[in-house]
C-alpha cells in the first residue's frame, strides 16, 4: 500500500503549497479542486514533478454534495488500486469581504457556511468512513483564529460570517473527534486536528482591511510549519497554530 495525502482545495494559495511541499518530500497526493479547468497552477506543478504519477487531480466542489460524493468515490477507487489514505487536509475556504452581521445577505451567509463548514465536514466524514480497516491517521481542518470563541476578535470588522463559519467548523470537528474515539475499532486512532495557518499572503488576504495585519507570512513558511505540527501532534480534537503553539478554542 502506498501512503497518500488528500488535499481538498488545492488549486491555489495554501492548498497548492501543501501539494508542492508534499510532492517535494516524495509523498503521493490526491488533490481535490473545485474545477479541473480552473486549476492551471496545480496542473503545471504536476507536470513539473519528477514523477507526475504521484499526483492525482480530481474534481471536488466542496459546496456540492454530488461533487463530494463523486470525489469520495474516486478516492475509494484509488484505495482499491493500492493507495492508502494516510492524512486528509480540508483546506478549501472562502472569505467574501466584508461579511458583517448587520449587512449580510441570506445567500452570502449560506455560502460561507456551505464552503467553510458543511462541505469540509461532509467531505471528511465520507473519506473517514471509506475503509473501516484502514481509516486515515490524521484529518486536518484548516480553520482560523477568527473562529475561536474564547479569543473573540471584535476588532475584525467585516468578518462576521467568516468567523461564524470557522467557529461552527471547530465545534463540529471536535464532535467528529469525540465520535471517532467512542466508535472504537481502528477509528479510535484517527486524530482530528484544527489548524490556524497564520496570516498568510494569499489571494484571500489580498483585501483592503481597516486595520494593520501584523506578522504576515508566505504560504511556504505556513505550510512547512503546519506539516511539522501535523506530524508531531496526536491529541485528537485539538487546535494548533502553524508554528506549533496551541490555539484556544
Ligand atoms: N490566508 C490567510 O491568512 C488565512 C488565515 C486563516 C485561515 N485561512 C484559511 O486557509 C484556507 C486556505 O486559504 P488561502 O489563504 O489559501 O485562500 P485562497 O488563496 O483564496 O484559496 C482558497 C482555496 O479554496 C478553494 N475553494 C474555495 N471554494 C471552493 C469550493 N467550493 N470547492 C473547492 N475548493 C474551493 C479555492 O479554489 P478555487 O481556485 O476554485 O477558487 C482555493 O484553492 C481557507 O480555509 C482559509 O479560510 C487563511
From TrEMBL:
InterPro entries: NAD(P)-bd_dom_sf, SDR_enzymes, SDR_fam. CDD domains: carb_red_sniffer_like_SDR_c (cd05325). It comes from the Eukaryota. Gene3D superfamilies: NAD(P)-binding Rossmann-like Domain. One of its GO terms (molecular function) is oxidoreductase activity, acting on the CH-OH group of donors, NAD or NADP as acceptor. This is Uncharacterized protein. It comes from Penicillium daleae.
